Amino acid sequence: MPARRTKRFARPPLPQRAGLDAVRVVAAPREVGRPVGEVLLDRFPALGSPEARDLGARFAEGEVVDQHGAAWSAQEPMMRAREVFFHRELAPEPFEPAEIPIVYEDGHLLVVAKPRTMASIPRGEHIRRSALVRLRVAHGLPDLSPIHRLDKQTGGILVLSKIPQERGAYQQLFARGEVQKRYVAWVSGEGTTLAELERGPIEIREPIAKRHGDLWAHIDPHGKEAWTSVRMMRREAESRRSLVSLVPHTGRTHQLRVHLAHVGLPIVGDELYPAPPPDPATGERSRRDVSEPLALWSVLMAFTDPVTGRERRFEWWPPEVPGDD
Questions:
Q1: Residue 276: pLDDT over 80
Q2: Phi-psi category of residue 67: left, alpha or beta, with phi > 0 → left and psi -120 to 50 → alpha
Q3: Which of 99, 140, 208, 286 is spaced 20 to 30 Å from 160 by Cα?
């Protein structure tokens, strides 16, 4: 049965700026009672940098408000029940026009083919050039939001919801594992696993763990269940590369990259896997120096729509890859 829209979403008290939502701050227990201006400077040191507009002036001009749109003063005490909203001043970032092909669109969803190396959502140094901000601005859709993750390095199908009240129902499909997904990748490597693939599909069932704050995920017998089906599509003996079809039955962080590297078939252009050994002096790892983007694309996503009840099937094929056979 289609999901009912029962939850009402309050509009943010500040309008978007160039496709970006205002920052929302909720007081942590240790921050309650402290002046809101001090809390913001502690959390966002860039607000006090010489290049930033004076924070006191921003308070005086009503640019820092609560969830009802009422202006804060810098010396008012933080309260758990009173949130803080303001717009960050963004550092300049390189920006080049980029085409994001539309795969499908209706009143509920926008499905696009995200280019590789483009961040899906604003993060770090990729804010205005993220796919979400570009799409909001280009299509005039301020409520647009992705319903699933797609790593910056991975290209292909990205599904976004247009209606905030419906977003949770779509996201729950992914949480419950009710979405069929397929990827393709160019891999390198030789050996036993490649020989097995040439005879037929293989299943990789190896648990994966990732420590908080660590960039690398890894195979761990005590990690979470992870299962990937792999099928050979094309073998290029001269370049020693193989095109493989990948079906993840679980959704662990970097699952496809970790599993393929583990069996000796790392994805071409992967700067993380197999994980390099730690530096003997510092214990830290460095990314690999790669000459091309990660050769991994999402090419299919299918599910029963929880809002309309329709069967959804979105497919796209990367132009850099020989046709699906």
A1: no
A2: alpha
A3: 208
Dist. CA 118–CA 98, nearest whole Å:
9
* Averaged pLDDT for residues 190-217: 92
Q: Quick check: 59 and 74 in contact, CB under 8 A? A: yes
Q: Residue 4: its pLDDT value, please?
A: 46
205 against 90, higher pLDDT: 205
Q: Rounded to an integer, what distance in angstroms lies between the CA atom of residue 295 and that of residue 89?
A: 34
Residues 78 and 216 in one domain: no
Indicate whether 197 and 263 sit together in one domain. yes
Q: Is 13 inside any structural domain?
A: no
CA distance 311 to 43: 44
DSSP E strands in the chain: the ranges are 23-25, 84-86, 102-105, 109-114, 145-146, 155-161, 180-188, 202-205, 208-209, 218-219, 227-236, 241-248, 296-304, 311-315
The pLDDT of 142-152, averaged and rounded, is 95
117 and 67 fall within a common domain: no
With a cut of 50, say whether residue 212 has pLDDT above it.
yes
Clarify whether residues 195 and 151 are in a common domain.
Answer: no
Does residue 59 share a domain with residue 191? Answer: no
Q: For residue 96, is it within any domain?
A: no
